[in-house]
Each structure stands twice: as C-alpha cells, then as structure tokens.
Amino acid sequence: MDWLALVISSSLVVGMDSPATLEGHVTLVSDYRSRGLSSSEEGLALQAGLGMAQQNGAYWGAWASSLEPSGDARSEINLFAGLTRPLAGFDIDVSVTAFAFPGQEDTAYGELVLAASRAFGPMTKTLGLAYAPEQAHLDASNHYWFAETEAPLGATGLNLIGALGVEEGPLGDLAGDGGEKWDWTLGISGPLEHFSWSLAYMDSTEDTDLSDAQLVFSLERGF
C-alpha cells in the first residue's frame, strides 16, 4: 500500500468544500518519547507541526521531529489526514499517518488510528487503537491500544495528564523478545505566557537503554 498516496487522497476527499483553519506549533522536548520509548537517546529534540482543520471535521497536515542519528536518519516526518465526527455522545476520530525517516532506506510505514473521546464533567477521556498492517517495511502487523485522560487541577490553571498503552508487534519490541510492551505517563501541564508546557513521568516494561523511566519536559509555542 502506498501510504503517502493514501494520506493525500484522504485529505482531498474528506476536506472538500468546507472552510479551513491553519494552525501550527513548535516544541522543544527534553526527550522525544513515543509510546514510552526514546527516539532521541534521552536527549533534546526540536519538533514542529502544521495542520489544516475544517468545519466538516476533516483535518490534515505534517509533523516533524529531530532524532538522535539512527543510521543516516536525523529526522522523522509524519504526514496525516483524518476525520472527526460526533456519535452517541463521543467524538470519533479516524485517521491515517505515513511515517518517513529521510536518509534511512526501507523504514517508511503507515498506520491507521481509531479513537473515541468523551468529556465527563471537566475531565476528558480517550480510548483508541493504532494499527499498522504488515507492509513493505514492516514484516508483521503492529497493534497499539491506548487510553488517555486530562483533568483540571482545581483553580490552579494546571491540568493532570495521564496515559496508558499496550503494544504488540515489531514497532514496540526493541528488546526483540516478541512480548507485548506496556507504557504509561503521568504528569501536569499548563500555560506560561505565550507558551504551554508539560512535565511528565514516562516509563515502559521494555528493558533497553531507550526505555528507562524518565521525567520529560516540553515547551510549546502555537501559532
């Protein structure tokens, strides 16, 4: 499957004939963590994203991050497209993402995500599944089930953030033991002048140098 073509065609189909809003952000993180694993060898990473969101619920865009050099790859680029719709009190989000690592051959792959979010008073909860089927550069399918929550901490202006995920497949199996990987996040976030920030404890059951428990700080500026 040509995942880049799928992302582009999806954005064109779902995003027709509806007013759109352009938004972006630049983020500095003390460690680029994805699903509990470090992609920056527990060092700093610079990230940026740009996306279009339409009134009909369609969205598409691009996101990029610096990486600790892996082979010839020094960056990760994601192209994505999706659609959100309300259904029975939930916000349903269906999306497709193409992952690329410029300079590194035979590493690009695609992933489909289905997520459902709902507000319970001031708290928001999300459940979802990210699925990457077997493909040219992925020798087996990959499943990642996740749950996320965010809740305000009284009148402090801060939010409590938490996440839990379980992954089965080659993308999360750095140890190469064929087992499933659990990861979890617990932290706080809040505003700071024209920025937003977060501080979170992240860990996983994977036992490698790139999956040690870590406090991760991020500072983001939106535009």
How is this fold's topology laid out?
Blueprint: H1 3-14, E1 20-29, E2 33-34, E3 37-38, E4 45-54, E5 58-70, E6 73-87, E7 90-100, E8 109-120, E9 123-132, E10 142-152, E11 159-168, E12 181-192, E13 195-204, E14 214-222
Antiparallel strand pairs: 1-4, 1-14, 2-3, 4-5, 5-6, 6-7, 7-8, 8-9, 9-10, 10-11, 11-12, 12-13, 13-14
Care to give the gist of this entry?
This protein has 223 residues and is mainly β. 5% of the residues lie in helices and 61% in strands. The protein has a 12-stranded antiparallel beta barrel with strand order 1-4-5-6-7-8-9-10-11-12-13-14. Strands 2-3 form a two-stranded antiparallel sheet.
Structure description:
The chain is mainly beta. The protein has a single domain, classed as Porin (Beta Barrel). It is built from one helix and 14 strands, in the order αββββββββββββββ. It has a twelve-stranded antiparallel beta barrel with strand order 1-4-5-6-7-8-9-10-11-12-13-14. A hairpin with a 3-residue loop joins β4 and β5. The longest helix is centred in the first third of the chain and has 12 residues. It starts with a helix and ends with a strand. The model has no long low-confidence stretch (mean pLDDT 90).
CATH superfamily (homologous) name = monomeric porin ompg
| Structural shape | globular
Mean pLDDT metric: 90
- Rounded to the nearest angstrom, the radius of gyration is 18 Å
CATH architecture: Beta Barrel
Helical content (DSSP H or I, runs of 4+): under 10%
Q: What is the CATH topology descriptor?
A: Porin
Secondary-structure element pattern, one letter each: HEEEEEEEEEEEEEE
Largest sheet: 12 strands, antiparallel, barrel
Structural class: mainly beta
